[in-house]
Specification:
Helices cover about 55% and strands about 5% of the residues. The chain is mainly α. The chain starts with 8 loop residues before the first helix and ends with a helix.
Length: about 100
């Protein structure tokens, strides 16, 4: 075992670089091993890893038609999903209901 207290600053910095390089190399080897294992598992089931990953790609969301419109500015719309826009909050605070804002 190395006694770090006996090393000079230059030796400590070199050791730090060597350790960082060793960690990077270790992680790269582990990544390659994991990739090889994943490819072997995919092949065992009759697929390539690329085929499996392509099928799992995130599909774009479909756009949703707006359900509510700002009575003061009809170009301001809201689908009813997510946070309420300020104009919806203001209208609700003014006593209107969501039914009043429906398109």
């Amino acid at each position: 075992m190395i006694d770090l207290n006996t090393l000079s600053l230059a030796e400590l910095k070199k050791l730090q670089k060597d350790v960082a390089r060793a960690i990077d190399d270790f992680q790269e080897r582990e990544k390659k091993a994991a990739l090889a294992a994943a490819e072997a598992a995919a092949k065992e089931h009759g697929f390539s890893l690329a085929q499996l990953l392509d099928e799992k790609a995130v599909k774009p969301r479909k756009s949703v038609a707006p359900k509510y419109a700002n009575p003061e500015n009809p170009s301001d719309t809201w689908t009813g999903r997510g946070r309420k826009p300020r104009w919806v909050v203001a209208a609700l605070d003014a006593g209107k209901t969501l039914e009043d804002l429906k398109i």
